[in-house]
Design brief:
heterodimer; A: 479 residues; mainly alpha; 21 helices; globular; B: 250 residues; alpha/beta; 6-stranded mixed beta sheet
Chain lengths: 479, 250
């Protein structure tokens, strides 16, 4: 069994989230995290030594509960994705299941690897803090070495249950897609959770305890809120609950594998036996072709985007992440600055990020680049149509300010629309010289060229600042 | 376009990557000829075909397609060419009909002609009932047939095929071979690479054997037998003999 675990970990390191990350860069990141953690630990100890009178009593419990919730959601998202991949990675699983190894062992090791990897992913970020806090005398942080594996095992167990439930409800053809979408949605939940303090923030309150929405809740001694902090309080109480959680995690994972391995095998077999062609009704429509090259190219790009739910999900994620920020800006802008709704600036950011992603998909992530090279049209014609295809879905966003605030703030709405348009076009044009990629790599496209990603972000911010500056000048001129 | 020009004329073609992939190839193929370029892996077959198709530029040498300089005037040359690699150039999320519409747009075909050709090809390749299905659900053979329909849609005068029969079952391989022969008989010039000697032996007019970027011999099967002095040898025997004979000399 250990050799297979070693094999699984090697595969993970070569093709998983750390793909393309060298061991040296990983070590450098870990060293930097330790240095950062040392600074935080020093500051916390210094605050403790000086009495820490401004710190609410429930704050440690809140931090721990929040950290646990954050870690669990991340692990659940990753493990659901991992389990779905285990089910659908045919060649590998077929090879293992055709060997003399017991199927239950194969599945057990695979599941354990998923639990281990999701734990490591969080641990690599969290354990440097544990190390430094322990070094500065806060030994309770050692519990992180037990808590995270426990959460990893619980999350993986839940991941298996979710994946198999989806399989039971949806069948082999749809489970992968829905599973990955669900994992992405859970990932979104993490972001919304991380933005919760901003959402709860009361713009007028200031001070160490009341500077945040959490602070206000903590000082208000809200009963419902306090009950939410039970996990944090339990962890703070001693080693007992932590060890209990670890035992629970291990027991639940073992039980899940024991009980569900048969169902897992059944699902894997059904997926393996799934035909490559979908049963469909015979076509009856006559062929109706379009004539213009430009239209044909645009239609093809829009079809490919529209028919890729995972891609749409990733694009949607980018927009949903902006909602909490928009809400915060909206709350802060109400009744200020001559009635200019500043939160609308978010739309420029949204247009910039979406245009970047869409243009990358259409230009850089072309599925059949050789076909286009072998065809008569020159590259400029093709790229122009592809950029148009990327910008078309953004037209409603450019017009949105005009439609909603055009009556009351016409000049601001026009300015916003123009800046959103300019931001979209300029960021889309940046994609022309991006190295080729695969559609699935939308999220990780920045890894290969961090400089370009930095320029893209800089350009978006420049457009927001320009719009803000012009609005401010407009306000000055009005008064 | 010169009417009496050869379909393809290559002179002293050179392409160097880390080592010379194509090392001074000269080749002339007549209009309507069915030509097979054979060679071991890494011999330079695909690189040669990719240069003819305009996918990579040669370091030296000239390529003329029906008298058109394919390096200087790639758009004009590409209008006459279709390129079909071993991995079909398809979009999984498009249906076959949508894929053919896209190809017709790329080659600037007149709509009526494109629709007519598409229907004819889809019926001929037994894909008509599947025209509104996405390619992602297709088997390897169906994908290759869809890609072949795309390659033939604009009635290319020079069809370039890289391992077109790899991974196809016997039925589909026969369908593809029959269609290629039909096209050759109707005047389309075809150049293909294959590792299946039987295909070259039965389908093509002339054969060129390439190794380490150079053409060792070319001619009809009979001419190759005469050159080798083995009147009853199969193409496989001739090929293996030549390749092993030149393995140490090049």
């Amino acid at each position: 069994m250990p050799w297979m675990l070693h094999h699984e970990l090697r595969l993970y390191l070569r093709s998983g989230v750390v793909k393309g990350t060298s061991l040296i860069s990983l070590i450098i990141v870990e060293v930097l995290l330790h240095l950062m953690a040392a600074a935080v630990a020093f500051a916390v100890r210094a605050a403790g030594a000086s009495g820490g009178s401004g710190t609410p009593a429930a704050l440690p419990a809140l931090l721990i509960t929040g950290g646990l919730a954050f870690s669990f959601l991340f692990m659940l998202s990753r493990s659901l994705n991992g389990i779905v991949q285990v089910l659908y990675t045919r060649a590998d699983l077929d090879l293992l299941l055709s060997s003399p190894m017991a199927p239950k062992s194969v599945i057990g090791v695979r599941v354990f690897t998923v639990a281990l990897t999701v734990t490591l992913e969080v641990g690599m970020l969290a354990w440097p803090f544990a190390n430094m806090f322990v070094l500065f005398g806060m030994t309770a942080w050692l519990k992180l070495y037990v808590l995270l594996p426990a959460l990893g095992m619980l999350a993986t167990s839940l991941g298996i249950v979710l994946a198999l439930t989806l399989f039971r409800l949806l069948g082999p053809r749809t489970t992968r897609l829905v599973g990955q979408v669900l994992a992405a949605l859970i990932g979104m939940g993490i972001f919304v959770l991380s933005q919760l303090p901003n959402l709860l923030r009361n713009g007028r309150a200031r001070g160490p305890a009341s500077g945040s929405g959490f602070g206000a809740l903590l000082s208000a001694n809200n009963g419902h809120f306090n009950s939410l902090l039970i996990p944090g309080r339990l962890v703070l109480e001693g080693y007992g609950p932590t060890l209990l959680l670890a035992l629970l995690g291990a027991a639940v994972l073992m039980l899940t594998v024991q009980v569900l391995s048969g169902h897992f095998m059944h699902a894997a077999t059904a997926i393996g036996g799934m035909g490559s062609t979908r049963p469909t009704r015979p076509s009856v429509r006559p062929l109706r072709f379009r004539s213009s090259l430009r239209i044909v190219l645009i239609v093809k790009e829009l079809r490919l985007i529209r028919r890729d739910p995972l891609l749409l999900m990733q694009l949607l994620q980018q927009s949903i992440y902006l909602l909490p920020m928009s809400l915060v800006l909206w709350r802060q802008s109400v009744g200020r600055s001559g009635g200019v709704p500043w939160f609308w600036l978010v739309i420029i950011f949204m247009c910039g990020t979406l245009a970047t992603a869409l243009a990358w998909i259409t230009v850089a992530a072309e599925d059949a680049p050789e076909l286009l090279t072998a065809a008569p049209p020159d590259r400029a014609t093709v790229v122009r149509a592809k950029i148009e295809a990327a910008l078309l879905p953004l037209v409603p966003l450019w017009l949105l300010p005009l439609l909603i605030i055009g009556r009351s703030q016409l000049w601001f709405a026009l300015l916003l629309g123009l800046c959103a348009f300019g931001c979209s076009v300029s960021t889309a044009l940046l994609q022309i010289h991006r190295p080729p990629g695969k559609r699935g790599g939308l999220k990780t496209r920045g890894r290969g060229s961090p400089g370009k990603a930095f320029i893209e972000m800089g350009l978006i911010i420049a457009w927001i600042l320009a719009c803000g500056l012009l609005t401010w000048i407009g306000l000055l001129l009005q008064h | 376009m010169e009417t009496d020009s050869p379909a393809l004329r290559i002179r002293h073609l050179i392409k160097v990557f880390t080592r010379p992939a194509v090392d001074g190839i000269d080749l002339t193929i007549a209009p309507g000829e069915f030509y097979a370029l054979l060679g071991p892996n890494g011999a330079g077959k695909t690189t040669t075909l990719r240069m003819i198709s305009g996918l990579i530029l040669p370091d030296q040498g000239t390529i003329e397609v029906f008298g058109i300089d394919a390096v200087a005037q790639p758009r004009r040359a590409k209008q006459l060419i279709a390129w079909l690699p071993d991995e079909p150039l398809l979009y999984d999320k498009l249906t076959v009909a949508e894929y053919l519409e896209f190809i017709a747009g790329l080659w600037g075909m007149e709509v009526r002609r494109a629709e007519h050709n598409a229907e004819e090809l889809l019926r001929r390749l037994d894909l008509w009932q599947h025209r509104d299905e996405r390619c992602e659900g297709f088997s390897r053979g169906m994908k290759q047939k869809a890609a072949l329909a795309g390659a033939l849609l604009h009635e290319p005068r020079l069809l370039i095929l890289d391992e077109p029969l790899t991974g196809l079952d016997a039925t589909i391989a026969r369908e593809v071979k029959d269609l290629l022969l039909e096209r050759a008989r109707s005047g389309c010039t075809i150049i293909l690479t294959t590792h299946i000697m039987e295909v070259a032996e039965r389908l093509v007019d002339r054969i060129g054997i390439i190794q380490r970027g150079r053409i060792l011999v070319e001619g009809t099967l009979e001419e190759l037998r005469t050159q080798a002095g083995r009147s009853n040898a199969t193409l496989e025997d001739l090929f293996l003999g030549l390749v092993s004979q030149h393995a140490g000399t090049l």
